[in-house]
Amino acid sequence: MTTSSGSGSVSIALCGSGGAGVMTAANMLVDAAAEAGIYALFGRSSGPQIRGGEAAALLRMAPEPITSVDDTYQILLAVDWQNVNRFAAELPLNKESIIITDPTAGEVPEAISKSGARIVELPMKDLAKEIPGGRPNMIALGAVAALIDFPVGPLTEILGKSLKKKRADAYEASVAAVKKGAEAAKSLGPCRKLGKAKAGGGKRWTISGNHAAGLGAIRGGIKFCAAYPITPATETLEYLSKALPKIGGVFVQAEDELASVNMCIGASYGGEPSITATAGPGLALMTEGLGLSVASETPVVVLDVQRGGPSTGIPTKSEQSDLNIAVYGLHGDAPHLVVAPSSIGDCLFTAQWGVHLAEALQSPCIILSEQSLGQSRAIIDEPADIAFVGKRVTAQTPAEGEVFKRYAITNSGVSPMPIPGTPGCQYTADGLEHAESGTPSSQESDHSKQLDKRMRKLTTHDYGAHWANIEGEGDIAVITWGSSTGAALEGVERARADGVNAKLISLRLIYPTRPEQMAAALKGVKKVLVVEQSHLGQFNRYLRGEYDLPAKPELINRAGPLPIRPGEVHARLLSMGK
């Protein structure tokens, strides 16, 4: 896959207090980029208030697909400086960057100005006053577009789609403000230009990771969702609440996370593929219910959109620190599925695959997404419509004289599961250990057989090539997962351009492990670099505990909210390649 590691990429940060409209301006620029054949990645940074208050719109645009934020921002534009200090560490600048400030907004904060970036003034508020109904954010939009050499045509087209039918005067004022901002930008000096869009290409989507995960769940066959709203997973729930009724499904807002997961298990027992979505605090509450799902072999899917922890932590920031609880958090020996998307587009495939696996293997499946995937918006190539539909092995009425055994020991570990009411297929489905019939049992022989059965169905299943994304060749392997994949991939490509070849291995199937496949992927590898976003290096510890690695890994890790950037991976690979 070719990424936007070249010079045609431009990164922009728009900052402002609540009501300044920086998110609106950024969304319009993304929509216009889609019209112009440009790729884009748009995230946001906000304070602990979640909604309202100061915010930063973080945007990267390029003529090639974008997998990650860049190392620095070429433009930082602030409509005002209210509490922007909160985002200073998330806004890396250098001497080639431009800081655009309104003269009425006061001095540029030292945390921003000490970067050495060039500071220029743009009287956004005064220019807006010259236009009846004009707004500073539209002045800013026009100025940024002109600085990066982005055409005004697609912008005015998007303004027309969003405003013309509502208020013609607002549309005219916004167009005038964009043009005035573009004209004013001529005095701001040079700036890195956006690369030109390439001719042709297939259909593209503009989508967030949370929306993509919801769509993937629907494509996978989900018919029921019960959930309790929680940042940063709520957008998936909002999507499912509208989508499920259209396909004959049901959405229920439960009173809490415990009720959510148990409602889903109940619906699944009744034959309806089910999902819930949450974040770390909710997953912690669901662990007992997930144990019931393991013991009763009732499939259920849990989408965990990870955020900073522990406890309430940082709801609006991303982190990869739910790995331990997802893999090891259930009491007893409770093998289950854990999968993770590696990009916004992959949220669709991984959610669909996760539903398929849960249904086929009659197991809970935890999908580990992240805030930086779920709540970010991107322009991507249209994902392939893959025919992964959740399909469980269902039981039929037994022949006369046969006794139905719900938990019969099979070679695959999967036993036929009846729809309630199937004649002759009555059984007890609870959390107690049981014999093959489902009758509760405390005998060691039954316990050992069922433990082996539940493990065997996961370890012997053929996951195909979907267990990991593997790119490139070399005697250095970069092993990563989730959102860190984007930065790792771009870092690998930059290192390759500098003569250091490395192989990228991004795990989609976190658990169960694939030791034989990993050994094949690591053939010829002499050095390993692990890249992750957790303070304790959870993924590194997991890899070292579960896999036979050819060398003690080097590690790039840190907690949120600062993302891993491609330059860090690039620099480490150059050092390892000496």
Explain what the structure shows.
The protein has 578 residues and is of the alpha/beta class. The protein has 4 domains: 10-187, Pyruvate-ferredoxin Oxidoreductase, domain 3 (3-Layer(aba) Sandwich); 206-381, Rossmann fold (3-Layer(aba) Sandwich), CATH 3.40.50.970; 393-461, no CATH class; 466-576, 3-Layer(aba) Sandwich (Rossmann fold), CATH 3.40.50. Helix content is 35%, strand content 18%. The protein is built from 18 helices and 20 strands. It has helices spanning 22-36, 110-113, 124-129, 136-147, 152-164, 168-184, 209-220, 234-246, 257-269, 280-296, 323-328, 346-361, 371-374, 444-459, 484-497, 515-521, 538-546, 566-576, and strands at 10-16, 39-46, 55-62, 75-78, 98-101, 118-121, 204-208, 224-227, 250-253, 274-278, 300-306, 337-339, 364-370, 377-381, 468-471, 476-481, 502-507, 509-511, 527-532, 554-557. The protein has an 8-stranded mixed sheet with strand order 6-5-4-1-3-2-14-7. The longest helix has 17 residues, at 168-184. The protein starts with 9 loop residues before the first strand and ends with a helix. The mean pLDDT is 95.
